[in-house]
């Protein structure tokens, strides 16, 4: 099915055929390199949403803790012996 652009005031409108049932009330519109118009439902970007960020704890604990100096003195020679730390002093 094809539709034609309609001029309504200062805007051009593409009508939505009746057999298409939109689920959202607001859409973002993009035009790709092939001049296709793409309509996607407008959604909240959770990465920019302060309300979403306030509801979640994004702190992270490290899986491997840092060695203290005593532990490092014991472990470092073993790592060097394995040949995995030959570039570090």
Could you write a compact summary of the structure shown?
The protein is of the alpha+beta class and 89 residues long. It has helices at 50-55, 69-81, and strands at 6-8, 11-13, 27-31, 37-41. The strands form two sheets. It has a two-stranded antiparallel ribbon. It has a two-stranded antiparallel ribbon with strand order 3-4.
Structural features, described:
This is Antitoxin of toxin-antitoxin system. This protein is α+β, with helices and mostly antiparallel strands. The chain has two helices and four strands; from the N terminus they run ββββαα. It has a two-stranded antiparallel ribbon. A two-stranded antiparallel ribbon has the order 3-4. The protein is elongated and about 75 Å long.
